[in-house]
Amino acid sequence: MPKDELLFVPLGGSGEIGMNLNLYGYDDQWLMVDMGVSFGEEGLPGVDVVMPDPTFIEERKDKLLGLVLTHAHEDHLGAVPYLWPRLKCPIYATPFAAEFLKAKLAETDFADQVPIHVIELGGRFKKGPFDIEFVTMTHSILEPNALAIRTPKGLVVHTGDWKFDPEPQIGEASDVKKLEALGDEGVMALICDSTNVFSEGKAGSEGDVAKNLSKLFAETPQGRIAVACFATNVARLQSIVEAAHENNRCVGLAGRSLNRVTEAARAVGYLTSYPNLLTDEDAMEVPKDQVLLICTGSQGEPRAAMSRIAKGDHPTVQLDPGDTVVFSAREIPGNEKSIGYIQNLLIRRGIRVITARDEPIHVSGHPGRQDLARMYQLTRPKILVPVHGETRHLCEQAALGAECQIPEQVIPHDGTVIRLSPGSAHVIGVAESGVLCLDGGRLLKRDSETIRNRNRIVWNGVMFVTVVLNQFGEMVGEPMITAPSLFDEVGDDVRLDHFAAEIGNRVDQLNDDEVLDDAAVILAIRQSLRRPVRQRLGKRPMIEVHLVRVNEQG
């Protein structure tokens, strides 16, 4: 890497929304910003979590100065418990993100090895050629930060996730004066959130949501109220609690992550004026019209509290006909079906369901077009690099930046190596990138043979064949075939007999050398089954052959 170049390399979050991981490089030294996950996607059966492949920086981990976390959302820090052992770098975060991360790491066996440095809001520190300053923003979580990264080649502003909200309910409003001061100092490049670039106007205010929730609860005097929301949206938690108290309802929490977030918030000084939040079990002892439950599961997650409540198998919480469930969260694209399933279960049981489509009870944590234009006006960058979005989001923000007269725009994708300086900003290469899948307790590449085979089995099934040959290469008995994903247990014996005959005929055709070669026999058995299985079933299953050789005694 040339010493006089400042590079930006996204390994995740550019080309998709989620699993953010960004790198800044100068003088053969690297700074990482965020390390997040995304959730299971189509074509990855059995995989709940995916994350960026860090191989590029892992190969340079002796040059990695540290990881800076902008905030505590899973798509920005959720990969730390899985990827940190591969990098073993120091971590820098403001108090809430640090506390939240410590709680996540407590479930690992290396928690005490991770050096987490707490940086106060608005704090500043140096690592190698990078001078990093936290800039307070607002978002749908406590303590979101933009980063002012000063380098020998110029000042970069990395926005993280953000919006402008004059009434954030909890925490501080965005530090507009600092952003303006950075613009006066001279911003070379703005690396900017693109999530809501298609939304006209401004992001809404949490203060308005609080007022609307209070009004809604007042109009629901009978029965229990349960509110599903994102556990990490502490401002929303506070809005719900205050609205409940205004309507003479006490509040209980249902869901492990809600308790974990609440504990982390209290540990750093938030939510301390609400010491009497109940457990879900205690909340069920309160008269129905005097209680409100905050629940996890706004996205229809099958193991979350709301899903279990809807199915009637939650160990403590029960909702009855006439009760009300409020979904105070946006539907993340891809989750519509699972959310609809839970809502339909509730409605069938006579429970009233209210969503953000029915009432103004949710606002986004990301900037609309008017907010983006204001950010450009405050920081006045020479270069715009849109991130945190699908390709269509990135291209749209680049076009908006051009409309707002930002001189240069560069559209990245995961693995793009962008030279920010010297000279005009442009792509100079491609770094190794990809996606890792959390499969049980191990990480697999998305294009690994295991994942490919699993997809094949999902769509075409699998057939297991056991063939026994004697020392002369002759079959001993009939082949044993099982195909539980292709046949019903009853009524398919004739079909299986047909396939067994195909195997016998093919093995008999092998010459003396082939029949003594395991690889040749296994290949022949697979070939003997492919066409008849495809003709009879219309499928191309994975065929697993177990070859057993025995010595028969005369």
Give the helices and strands, then pairings.
Elements: E1 6-12, E2 14-15, E3 21-26, E4 29-33, E5 38-39, E6 49-52, H1 55-58, E7 64-68, H2 74-77, H3 80-87, E8 91-93, H4 95-105, E9 116-118, E10 124-127, E11 130-136, E12 145-151, E13 154-158, H5 176-185, E14 187-193, H6 206-218, E15 225-228, H7 234-246, E16 250-254, H8 256-267, E17 278-279, H9 280-283, E18 291-295, H10 305-311, E19 324-327, H11 336-348, E20 352-354, H12 369-379, E21 383-387, E22 389-390, H13 391-403, E23 408-409, E24 416-421, E25 426-430, E26 435-439, E27 442-445, H14 449-460, E28 462-469, E29 480-482, H15 493-508, H16 518-537, E30 542-549
Parallel strand pairs: 2-22, 4-7, 7-8, 8-9, 13-14, 14-21, 15-18, 15-19, 16-17, 16-18, 19-20, 21-23, 28-30
Antiparallel strand pairs: 1-3, 1-24, 3-4, 5-6, 6-26, 10-11, 11-12, 12-13, 24-25, 26-27, 28-29
Question: Explain this structure to me?
Answer:
- With 554 residues, the protein is α/β, with parallel strands linked by helices.
- The chain is 31% helix and 25% strand.
- It has 16 helices and 30 strands.
- It has an eight-stranded mixed β-sheet. A seven-stranded mixed β-sheet has the order 10-11-12-13-14-21-23. The chain has a six-stranded parallel β-sheet with strand order 17-16-18-15-19-20, with helices on both faces.
- Helix 10 (305-311) packs across helix 11 (336-348).
- The mean pLDDT is 92.
